[in-house]
Write a structure and sequence with these properties.
Layout lengths: L3 H23 L1 H12 L2 E2 H7 L5 H13 L3 E6 L5 E6 L1 H5 L1 H27 L6
Antiparallel strand pairs: 1-3, 2-3
């Protein structure tokens, strides 16, 4: 049996090792891209239309990061203009269930979070 300090050190080390992966799959735009591609492959402009508020630059950065990390594939079909399709890989499909679960949790608990924020914001602040 390990003592609690060993457990905390181990957990901190693990967190550092996975933080970049969690940052990718937990990123607002990445989650929305993965959700859209979970329905079917999309072309770039289809993704842009499906994801309200994302800029072209942010979507470009997001799909590049997701491709680099192995969550999506980018297939270029030679034509004029070139056709580019994005689709989830097996790794990308494997993250659908946990991201959907987090989304459902967020929807179910949104009011509680908003109430906690209001209560926190209404508290008097210390001078320090």
């Amino acid at each position: 049996m390990t003592d609690s300090s060993d457990l905390l050190a181990h957990t901190a080390e693990q967190c550092l090792r996975v933080s970049d992966v969690l940052a990718r799959v937990g990123d607002k735009w990445s989650v929305l891209v993965i959700a859209a591609l979970g329905q079917r492959p999309h072309r770039f402009n289809e993704l842009k239309r499906a994801i309200d508020g994302v800029s072209q630059r942010m979507l470009t950065l997001t799909v590049r990061g997701l491709e680099r990390d192995g969550f999506i594939t980018r297939t270029v079909t030679p034509s004029i203009p070139p056709r580019v399709d994005y689709a989830l890989t097996d790794l990308g499909r494997s993250v659908l269930e946990p991201t959907r679960a987090m989304g459902e949790w967020a929807l179910a608990n949104r009011e509680a979070v908003e109430a906690a924020r209001r209560a926190y914001d209404a508290r008097p602040r210390d001078a320090a």
